[in-house]
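Suppose you are handed a protein chain with no further information: no name, no annotation, nothing but its sequence. What can you learn? This example shows the usual starting point.
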Amino acid sequence: MSKRIIAFLLIALAIYWSFSVLLPNTISDIDTPDSKFSTHRALVHLKAISKQPHYVGNANHSEVRNYLISELKKLGLETQVQEGYSMGPWGNLSKAKNILARIKGRDSGKALLLLSHYDSNPHSSFGASDAGSGIVTILEGVRAFLTENKTPKNDIIILFSDAEELGLNGADIFVNQHPWAKDVGLVLNFEARGSGGPSYMLIETNQGNASLMKHFVEANPEYPVANSLAYSIYKMLPNDTDLTRFREDGDIDGFNFAFIDDHFDYHTALDTYERLDRNTLEHQGSYLMPLLYYFADADLTDIKNNEDHIYFNVPLFKTVIYPFSWIMPMLILSIVLFVGLIVYGLKKESLSLNQIGKGFIAFFTALILSAASGFVLWKLLLKLYPQYQDMLHGFTYNGHTYIAAFTCLALAICFMVYHKFYASENTASLLIAPLAFWIVICGIVALALKGASFFIIPVLFGLLSLLVLIRQKEPNIYVLVFLSLPVITIMAPLVKMFPVGLGLKILFVSCVLVVLIFGLTISVFGSFPKKNRLAYLFLSLTIACLAVSHGRASFSEDRPKPNSLLYVLNANNQSAVWATYDNVLDDWTKAHLTDNPEPASELQENTIGSKYKTGFTFTNKAELKSLPEPSITILQDTVIGDNRDIVVQIKSNRQAERFEVFSDSTNVFKRFTINGVSAKRDNNADYVFEKRFQNRLFSYYVSDNEPLEMHFVVPKNQQTRFTIYEATFNLLEDQNFEVSKRQPNMIPKPFVLNDAVVVKKQLTIK
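A reasonable first move is to predict its three-dimensional structure. Written in structure tokens, the prediction is:
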């Protein structure tokens, strides 16, 4: 076997290695010692709490709460339930019921808080991964910890929060109302946004991450998956985990541990016990146990720090950290070495200006062709498979195969382009262009996205490769493979992480990353005289992956189609329609919407609250049903000076689970309180609810059939109008309707109001 083939196989092995170290490869079984975390023991709890959807307000939610309280008591812990109304920044009001327990430590310092939420997303998610996996990780971890009968230095608070899915409401009432909140020094939060893959560590802090990262490295989790690029991006985005409330409202730092792969299961009826990846649950346990033991006895007053660290994970070394203060010196060093090596190479005639110029043409040709091909190909696939539009996640069931296809396509382009520019002994010259581009990227991120500055590590090793190529006419190819390991092991997982985390719409970014990685491995591949053969190989693999993706593009029982159907009764004009959010109708929805539905123009005037602000697409006239309307009572109407103080109570007569309240922008509100919770005024706004999307004011998720009470102040001469949607989630069970069950290859569409019987009511206060 030739050295080039061995080198190719070694690089392929390095890519495999970079992914294999991200997750545990063995699962702890039921016979694991009592003092150790056991995934199988955790699964016993998970099976019990994920039998049915258990969203806020339904009966299963109460059953899960009672089960968790019982299990905490079995561990010898006293428990309490904290209740309270909350309305988060998403405009969702609910009564959260938090479950709390506390392990007393021997000192009176700050406490460690273990956090996950026990509610599932309304209305069809079983909540096994999100966040049943976090709940059972903590239950099993605390059980193992208590088995050793050691009193920790710090108190350990266990918080199973409620209504996280609705707007972090449980975390809100804990941080802002519970006396224990002031005792918390650090939070470990366990979350999920899919049903598999590695769990990523993300830091929540208002200060720097240096102290947190030093402690994290000292705690030494076995399979750390974390990088400061994700940290920097995360700080720039609007965050939405329970831990956000701790940081923003209490200035309490913490670690998030969340897995995001198999995103198509997120918030759906597929988020089940059976589909949760066991290795992923093991990964969560591998984080909790060392961190629990470490922070149970650490000084939690030594967490705050204004300094930031670069960090990334790499095989063998686990988590590498160094200060932000190193960024500019390392960048300057790279620039100096790069310029010096070019001068040195030209003097030795190992570099040629002509060949360097060709190298720039080759690199940018590969970069532009790969990015453009990735962008255009995904747009074409969306045209060929319009059903993908109904997967609001942005990640299809065959998404991983598409990642493989686009990766192979980019590699095919790279090998074909560089084949055209092959010449004996020009590899060093070809390496100049990618190194220059990488250094430019490092310069940009050093100024604008400092967390990505670990990109300089592959550059430094690339410069060493350039030195070897300049000094040796026939360099040892295995040395060059070794010097390519940093760019492969650090960057290769990002090729998958970006589309998994942000959706397949950015597959072109994966193509760009492939070219960047390939650019620094040209030190190895540059000497391959027949790169066109590898180009044909990867082009064949691209076609094969696309063929496999095509075979999995249709829906099946394992890959069910998300669809939606609602019955909407307009109580004011006594009309009714069937409505859907779907772009592509199927046999189940056509049974009520027909082959020629109307555009949902009237319903689109008000977009009901959803994760992606999704609007209705089609409607069809429906038979009028006699449904009880909500009772609306004006409890108070008082004029004081130029203002009018009004209290309105709305009570459901059919056990509604959700109210949506709208009012157009001609109505202004000086103050507004809902069930005792004040609506927050936007920054620099004169009125509350000044910034509205499609006229929406708020949503109210009902518990215990408690009425909605609105107390608001308006200008005294204003004629105030509300549009109210009252919804139950029982369309398929309601005897008033003849709606068949979905076929096995269908599930309720997530993120939207679905399977609902809706009564629309106008309220005008003249």
